[in-house]
């Protein structure tokens, strides 16, 4: 049986998360994050769907997701995956962009996959420094140099096209879910507020957002759940406060999207001065 290792560190100096998954075979359903993800395939082969485009990933490929980019991935031919990434919140990314460019904006990375990129080596070195808890400025220097090249060569300072193209009906549905994610929501409510049939609504939403309405709602709930866990809330409390029917449903969906259970994720945020980590073998 394949041994899985899932390691997550929150670096308090850089204010970001670093993930390392080894030997995993998990399939990740279509979802999005409210933060930037910059990662690379250390070993393995994967199928990726992102923003309605398909990609084949191999060792040495760099992956970049903007906030709200819908994406899903799964293994190929039963191969396991070794993967590393860093997750950067928008407010932290904005701070780094201002430091690098002197301008106040959020970047929009134009391609989710950089095939066989030389940046893979730089990202690997930075990731190791974070996991090892290095405390001198070499770590921050490496991050700034990496972001500088990514912003210069692979980003624009423009909003995503998908946000500009949303119809009034779909924008209204999104805003409702973002506000009422804690409540039970029925499809009939969207029909009443938009005047669209259920089928037309589902097709239109999925086309414009790249993700189904239900998956959009669950992803919003997980995003809020992460913040509550980071603040120290118990998983059973978080499940209730984020609209999940029960703790089991919450735990299963959290692991499908994040790759960790809520309890494992909560353990990395112990509010100590040094970086904290959670490591589990399966």
TrEMBL record:
Q: Keyword Hydrolase, does the record have it? A: no
Which keywords fit this entry according to its UniProt record? DNA-binding, Transcription, Transcription regulation
Q: Which CDD domains does the record match to this protein? A: cupin_YbfI-like_N
What InterPro entries does the entry give?
A: AraC-bd, AraC_XylS_family_regulators, Homeodomain-like_sf, HTH-like, HTH_AraC, RmlC-like_jellyroll, Tscrpt_reg_AraC-type_HTH
Q: Which GO terms describe its molecular function?
A: DNA-binding transcription factor activity; sequence-specific DNA binding
Residue span, HTH araC/xylS-type domain: 171-268
Please state what the protein is called. AraC-like DNA-binding protein
Q: Which Pfam families match?
A: AraC_binding, HTH_18
């Amino acid at each position: 049986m394949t041994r899985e290792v899932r390691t997550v560190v929150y670096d308090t100096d850089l204010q970001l998360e670093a993930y390392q998954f080894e030997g995993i075979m998990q399939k990740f359903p279509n979802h999005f994050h409210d933060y930037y993800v910059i990662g690379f395939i250390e070993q393995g082969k994967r199928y990726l769907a992102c923003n309605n485009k398909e990609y084949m990933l191999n060792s040495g490929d760099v992956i970049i997701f903007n906030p709200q980019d819908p994406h899903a991935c799964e293994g190929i031919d039963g191969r396991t995956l070794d993967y590393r990434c860093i997750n950067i919140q928008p407010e932290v990314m904005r701070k780094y962009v201002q430091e690098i460019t002197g301008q106040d904006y959020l970047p929009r990375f134009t391609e989710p996959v950089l095939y066989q990129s030389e940046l893979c080596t730089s990202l690997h070195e930075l990731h190791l420094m974070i996991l090892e808890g290095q405390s001198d400025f070499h770590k921050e220097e490496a991050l700034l140099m990496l972001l500088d090249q990514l912003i210069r060569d692979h980003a624009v300072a423009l909003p995503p096209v998908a946000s500009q193209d949303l119809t009034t009906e779909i924008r209204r549905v999104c805003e409702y879910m973002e506000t009422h994610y804690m409540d039970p929501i029925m499809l009939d409510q969207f029909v009443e507020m938009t005047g669209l049939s259920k089928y037309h609504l589902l097709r239109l939403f999925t086309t414009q957002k790249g993700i189904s309405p239900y998956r959009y709602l669950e992803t919003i709930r997980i995003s809020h759940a992460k913040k509550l866990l980071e603040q120290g809330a118990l998983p059973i409390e978080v499940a209730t406060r984020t609209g999940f029917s029960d703790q089991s449903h919450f735990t299963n969906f959290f692991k499908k999207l994040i790759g960790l259970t809520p309890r494992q994720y909560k353990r990395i945020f112990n509010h100590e001065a040094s970086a904290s980590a959670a490591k589990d073998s399966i």
